[in-house]
User: Fold this.
Amino acid sequence: MIMNKSQADNCMASPSYYFNEYFKGQQASDLQSCYSFYTHKLPCTHYITRACNLNTTNTSIPYTMEAIRNDFPILRQRVNGNPLIWFDNGATTQKPLSVINTLSQYYREYNSNVHRGAHTMAVLATKAYEEARNKVQLFLGASSTEEIIFVRGATEAINLVSQAYGGANIQEGDEILLTEMEHHSNIVPWQVLAKQKGARIKVIPMNDKGEIILEEYRRLLTLRTKLVGITHVSNVLGTINPVEEMTRMAHDYGACVLIDGAQAAPHFKVNVKQIDADFYVFSGHKAYAPTGIGVLYGKKAILEAMPPWQTGGGMIKDVSFEKTDYNSLPDKFEAGTGNIADAIGLGAAIDYMNKLGLDQIEQRERTLTQYAMERISCLPDTFVFGNAVDKTSVISFIMKGISPVSIAKYLDQKGIAIRAGHHCAQPALRHFGVDSTARVSLGLYNTKNEIDILVYNLISIHKNGV
Ligand SMILES: Cc1ncc(COP(=O)(O)O)c(C=O)c1O
Assistant:
């Protein structure tokens, strides 16, 4: 929905408590002129409404925003004298109390190593750790817990696949296809492998809206293609890629598909079986869980056929100085002591997202993305990158004459955390001829009021400089 003048006035006349608190001490007329200023620029609206493919009629969520925000203690912080507005969810999300309490309870009540102990604490810790794996299995729609490997994060998962799967299956002359919008984490490990093996990397191009060009992708696929790496959601453009279709196309050529779900898993329901992904990876910390824990999903048959990556304790059945028999899945890929507490914390984060409902989270965030896109795109001298028809949660932009870092620093003084830089996706930015953008990335606790405050400050930057 586009805010017209009378709606803007209405919004100014009845701001929520939060909005009120932020603007305490400001003249209403300032706000009025601010809104008039940008609503005046709305002619670009028609172009924005196409940008988000969503149904805006049902945006209800059974939990109030106030209740959700109360679950995140950090959101009560003031930063530089202002209430914290966390728009850096693409980098990492804040943690709900249930996750914080789960970690604290683990260390206070049943800290133990897992699997190898006969004592009560080991049994409790093992049970909680394996329950977390079970939650991840259901979260991703995987067939069994054997397909769920705990790793440090998306980066580690991709390194595991590139070295263990790639090391065994990719040979000289083979080709690896990666989209132009990959995060460096899904580029560099493949470059290393390609160099080791004499394989070639080919790039699946995107158009200027930030959408994969499927005809080009089709042209690139050959019997030499051994692996296709696709980000489910671009961390710089917010594009939701057609991973199901792309996977089907890759499989027609016998290629294996790895999907980087780092920016997808926190935002909508993922089903690895429906996608038919061979590998799917995500990081816990971007999904309301602690840092240092992430997931590699792999099809059981593929994981079983793969050699281990790291070796040592925990991943073995029997060791002699002559030879080692490896453990069965998933232990074969979890050498050494894992990140037990944070895996259990990931389970709590999944419980939290399930409680709110992934469908509702998706609906709210898409609505909020559209709301932000409408307003930021319409600001004068401001250019937004990424207008895919299917898009969520990320808005990257530049403002003429003002560096992204200066924008981020200005906003930080107002308590607003956004990211500025190349977002570890330099090839994607180069497509648009820039080396840096400001990036707003949304999470389940963000509100329209927060977007309004952001826009108000962006207008101020445009009018008065930084
Ligand atoms: C799309 C994407 N892939 C991979 C990563 C790497 O995630 P991590 O640093 O948690 O391993 C990120 C982080 O920003 C990302 O956005």
